[in-house]
Design brief:
By secondary structure, the chain is of the alpha+beta class. The protein is built from eleven helices and 20 strands.
Length: 474
């Protein structure tokens, strides 16, 4: 009746900063959270792998963005922390008196962090070499990665976190849409915004429609992204990021604008998979090292970065995937072989697709394999413990470094916790109401009713479980 533990717990002094109340059972916490669906978790000694507690440990659930922690380990092993993406401008022809007699090539390697400021810097460097005119075309080579229209086809068409992918990416493959009411109508703008620049674009078009819903519609027409937005949804002013579905053409258009501003002209633009061998390299832009790229991915949970580094890691292993599913399958096999997972089934590298499945036990095995002092933990974001009003508790005795994951009616958390004793715990907590999620219509998927309270209760439950484990085991 009292649900005594199967094995006696080692008596430990309770820190004064932790609750002196009796520690509630995990079942009690889950019942009080009343989030619905299923909850699975495992907590283990991060150094030895000894499992301390679990519930539904072998039931596969959607990991959401916790997937990125696996992608991080995958990229670190296959590409290394010092790997850098390179974007190059090369000349296929001869340069004389500031004129290139031939084609100018913009060649991508898939850099997910490449932005308008970086592209402008390349145009300026090109002009500094004396180039003023190109008699041929601007050729854009994007074959370093497969061209992928969107990460997850089930998402609403207008969400910026579901971009296209190619071998040449710009501004996380998003365009900035801004509107302001003026004289009874709206002034609208679409631009390739970066930290310092806002060049206007034509690759994406927007039209205001006199309707209530849907808020946005999308259609590809003549190689351009054509959007409409419902007038009644706009208000007085606002902005949002929209996905770009033809990233290479987007980058080419922005580069043409920037080159023209730098005093360089070329008559036409064309796309090709690869640049010719033996052409002259004029300008090279390098990304930050992979360790920095991954750290930022883990901090900001950028889906494009996760998909690009996952694809590159698969290719570094000798496989050329046609799509995300093939590459994610290769990562699943790698996780089973290298990180002690018995089962792993990913459909992408970011966790955006809700058909990915991972068992809590397998995620904890991966965390133990990575080590409590390993690179993965260093790249995880510190997760503050919160009070009842959602405010961080200063000097809380439990330190948590973890990756969060959130989809509608899915909330996951996996990482490391260190209690007052200094003992490191590895844990994974997966909460998912897949029945409720699967019942959403397309119109409900961006902000469905009940999703926010579900997420709040799930996160509170996750913290309560961590506090329980810290009291009992750390």
């Amino acid at each position: 009746m009292a649900a005594a533990p199967a094995a006696s717990l080692r008596p430990m002094m309770r820190p004064a900063t932790l609750s002196a109340e009796p520690v509630p059972s995990a079942r009690q916490l889950i019942a009080e959270a009343a989030i619905g669906g299923r909850v699975g978790f495992v907590v283990a000694d991060a150094a030895t792998g000894t499992v301390l507690e679990g519930m539904n440990p072998f039931f596969p659930l959607p990991p959401a963005s916790v997937t990125k922690a696996v992608t991080c380990s995958y990229a670190l092993e296959r590409l290394g922390p010092d790997y850098r993406f390179e974007t190059r401008i090369i000349a296929d022809g001869t340069i004389s008196n500031g004129q290139l007699n031939g084609d100018l090539w913009l060649v991508g390697s898939g850099d997910p962090t490449f932005d308008t400021d970086s592209l402008a810097g390349m145009a300026t460097a090109l002009r500094a070499q004396g180039l003023r005119e190109v008699t041929g075309r601007l050729m854009v080579a994007d074959g370093a990665l497969p061209s992928i229209f969107e990460v997850d086809p089930s998402q609403p068409p207008h969400v910026g976190y579901n971009p296209a992918i190619s071998g040449l990416n710009l501004n996380f493959n998003r365009v900035h849409f801004e509107w302001v009411r003026q004289a009874g109508d709206y002034a609208i703008a679409l631009d390739a915004r970066s930290e310092t620049l806002r060049p206007a674009v034509q690759i994406a078009r927007m039209r205001i429609a006199d309707r209530r819903d849907p808020v946005y519609t999308y259609e590809a027409i003549d190689g351009r992204d054509h959007w409409t937005v419902a007038r009644e949804a706009l208000g007085d002013r606002g902005s949002r990021w929209l996905p770009v579905r033809r990233p290479s053409a987007y980058a080419a258009e922005v580069f043409q604008t920037l080159a023209r501003a730098a005093g360089i002209s070329f008559p036409d633009i064309a796309l090709a998979p690869a640049a010719p061998a033996g052409a002259t390299v004029l300008v090279v832009h390098q990304s930050e090292p992979m360790a920095v790229v991954l750290r930022d991915m883990m901090r900001w949970s950028t889906n494009l970065t996760a998909e690009v580094v996952g694809l590159k890691a698969t290719m570094a292993g000798g496989q050329r995937p046609d799509d995300l599913a093939q590459s994610a399958g290769a990562m699943s096999a790698w996780m089973r072989a290298r990180l002690g997972a018995r089962q792993a089934g990913f459909v992408d590298h970011s966790g955006l697709g809700d058909q990915s499945r991972l068992r809590p036990h397998d995620m904890v095995s991966a965390l133990v394999a990575a080590g409590p002092a390993g690179a993965l933990r260093q790249m995880m974001r510190a997760q503050p413990m919160l009070d009842g009003r959602g405010r961080p508790i200063a000097d809380h005795p439990v330190q948590v470094a973890a990756k969060t994951g959130t989809l509608n009616f899915v909330s996951s958390l996996a990482g490391y916790a260190r209690g007052p004793s200094g003992r490191d715990l590895a844990f994974a907590i997966f909460c998912a109401d897949t029945v409720r999620r699967d019942g959403l219509s397309e119109a409900e998927r961006e902000r469905p009713e009940g999703a926010r309270p579900y997420n709040q209760r799930a996160k509170r439950l996750q913290q309560q479980l961590i506090e329980r484990w810290a009291t009992l085991y750390a």
